[in-house]
Amino acid sequence: MAEKYSAVFMDRDGTINEEVSFLSRMEQLKLYPQSGEAIRLINAAGMKAVVVTNQSGIARGYFTEDFVRGVHDRINELLGAEGARIDGFYVCPHHPIHGQGIYKQDCECRKPKPGMLLQAAREMNIDLARSYMVGDMLRDVQTGKNAGAKGILVKTGYGMNIVRTDMPSCIAGDILEAVQWILKDRKKE
Ligand SMILES: [Mg+2]
Ligand SMILES: [Zn+2]
Hints:
The chain has helices spanning about 35-45, 55-60, 65-80, 115-125, 140-145, 175-185; strands at about 5-10, 50-55, 90, 130-135, 150-155, 170. By secondary structure, it is α/β, with parallel strands linked by helices. The site of magnesium ion has 9 residues, from loops.
């Protein structure tokens, strides 16, 4: 059997693009200036670059699943111009309380549950124990831990306000610092 990949799982809003609270119009999409280089480094290291994002705005009726797919196509278009690519996007469209219709459910994919990481691991042949989850909320860090990966907090987006520092494996200024830490951490193993 071929060797498994390791992955950098990334939250989307506040981690690779600006947090705007329920991104619902394409013109609100602004990648952070460090994201292209960060993701290019992940690609070059032979790791999988995977976005895992809670989008309860779908459940709340603020925007559609199609809109979110369009945003992700656009993210890869913008990254492509910088020689970088996301290998997979995983989306939780649910909310246990504020959801409408089929989207109102206590699902297994909404972070901090590890469902999206487990699914990606199956579909993309990823070894979670050698993988990392980067995000701007402690919920993202917890998601990584719940999947058996290492969690890294970035101080962009909501991460700017977080003062508790005991939980993540690393606290990084932004996605590029996080990836630089990951590449060093991998060499130790
Ligand atoms: Mg976020
Ligand atoms: Zn879900």
